[in-house]
Amino acid sequence: MGQQPMSRRTVLAATAVTAATVATAGGSRPATAAPGPAGLPETYVVPGDRAFPTGHAYDPRTGHIYVGSAEDGTIFRGHLTVPTLRPWSPHGTDGRAGTSGMTVDAAGRLLVGGADTGTLRVYDPADVTLLALLHGVEGGFLNEIAAAPEGTSYVTDSFRPMIYRLTHTGTSWRLERWLDVTTTPIDWVEGRHNLNGIICIDDHLLTVNSATGRLWRIDRHTRQSHEVDLGGDLLPNGDGLAFRDGHLYVVQGNLNDLPGLTPQVTVIRLSPDLARGRLAGRLLPPGGFLHPSSITLPGDRALVVNSQYNRWSAGLPPESLPFTLSTVPLASARPAA
Question: Is the omega angle on the peptide bond into residue 263 within 30 degrees of 0, that is, cis?
Answer without folding.
Answer: no
